[in-house]
Design a protein that fits this description.
Blueprint (H helix, E strand, L loop, with lengths): L3 H6 L7 E4 L3 E5 L9 E5 L12 H20 L3 E5 L15 E6 L19 H9 L4
Antiparallel strand pairs: 1-2, 2-3, 3-5, 4-5
Length: about 140
């Protein structure tokens, strides 16, 4: 299995998982744009949103549940939700993934979206806050 996200879903690669159901897994992005930046991926391999008919419907409940979790536990004021389809659109891993990027009042707007505002060294603390585990 060469797909990075398929290996994460299978448990072959470590991740900071915050939600899982029968169709999807959600885990913290290792290079977060903002505190709590999370990826939701389907358990089955689908290259992108345009490749897998019905996949969006399958993973939508996990996207919604994870977005609510981020809001409740991190206290964000807003959320960017997006998915890139294809390399020309900026997709770096060819496995469908939805970005949930919590947004905070001190860095509002779309222009501030892609300016890295999160410290990757805080991933364990953010994970503990989202999962209620010690950390």
């Amino acid at each position: 299995m060469s797909c990075l996200f398929c290996r994460v879903v299978a448990g072959e690669l470590p991740s900071r998982q915050v939600h899982a159901d029968e169709h999807a897994v959600a885990f913290l992005d290792i290079a977060p744009l903002h505190r709590g930046h999370t990826l939701v991926v389907p358990r089955r391999h689908v290259e992108d949103l345009l490749d897998g008919a019905g996949t969006w419907t399958e993973i939508a409940p996990a996207v919604e549940t994870t977005a609510r979790l981020l809001r409740e536990r991190l206290g964000c004021a807003g959320m960017n939700v997006f998915s890139s389809a294809g390399a020309v659109a900026g997709q770096e891993v060819p496995h469908l993934h939805v970005h949930l990027v919590p947004r905070y009042p001190e860095h509002p707007g779309l222009r501030a979206l892609l300016e890295r505002r999160a410290d990757p060294d805080e991933l364990d603390a953010v994970h503990a806050r989202l999962t209620g585990s010690a950390g």
